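Structure ticket #2291
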Amino acid sequence: MATIHCLGTGLVGSYVVRYLSERGHLIHAYDLDPSRVEGLRNVKTHRVDLNFSVEDISSAEGSLALNMLPGAIGCVWTRALCERFTTIIDLSFSEITPNTTFLEADEIGTRILWDVGIAPGLSNMLASHAVRKMGNLSSLKIYVGGNPTEPIGEWKYMAPFSPTDVLEEYTRPARILRNGLLDVVPAITDRHIIEVPGYGKMEGFLTDGLRSLIETLPCSNMYEYTVRWPGHIQRFLDEVGDGSFDQDAAMRAWEHDDETPEFTWLMVQAVSEEGEVMAWNVIDEGGKDGHSMARTTGLVTAICTEMLIENEDLVPPGAHPPEALPDYAVSRIITEMKSHGVIIDGPEIDL
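Resolution: structure written out below.
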């Protein structure tokens, strides 16, 4: 079993720590408040402050680090971790991505696998598989959202991960592909109603979730949409527009409530240049081991971690997005997610 250093024990990070520790790995968990994972078998918690640096990381053995910090500080920490670790999994979803800032990673022998969540993450893997099966794509559409099973409260929403990262989704310009050309549009554009299986009409709008796919996937038209209950994003736009938006109040209102039923939905639809279609639907309503976004994101992260422990050559030195993983790795991820009760409908990933 391996020694793994985990930075961040929030809603998703704590799920990953718990999963890996139950598999017998020794975990060093670092957070301002690591209470979610305190007392777990095989877990040593490290309560840190804002002056925490890579030099403060435990000197215990272990060459693998998981960066599960919020995106605003994630990029800084991935670079810092390169000084100490040879294998890094980056789940921070920072706006500044490792492939643009760690060009020397392959030269120093460091392996960085980044964006290994559900979307980006599993969505990238499915889209890449579609290209391997069908060739160049005419279009790719990705819809994803973690929401309460019914609209609740004034915002009709609660955040399944860091509320500050949610807010960044709403403000960061969205990069898309139109007719083979990169286009940058304001977030929350192309709003439209979409039918979510089992839940009814919800609202999709463009956000900046394509990331690496824009450069790695041969596709003419590519879009990613965040999905919310109707009314949520209109309230946000109204309050920002009239100057009444209170970020602190919104962060409190969006705080996750473990007692509120919720679900995560992902849809990936790829269309080839010949009109052939491959599509997947992923739905989870959580379980005894965690809420749905923690499970669907955390399972992808944890399974990738174990695959890299078993075979560090799964990816070569350098910074790699999730679509770089081979089909056999994607097949294993899907199989293990299904074994935990996650519903994944769509073409099988045949080896």
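Closing remark: The radius of gyration is 19 Å.
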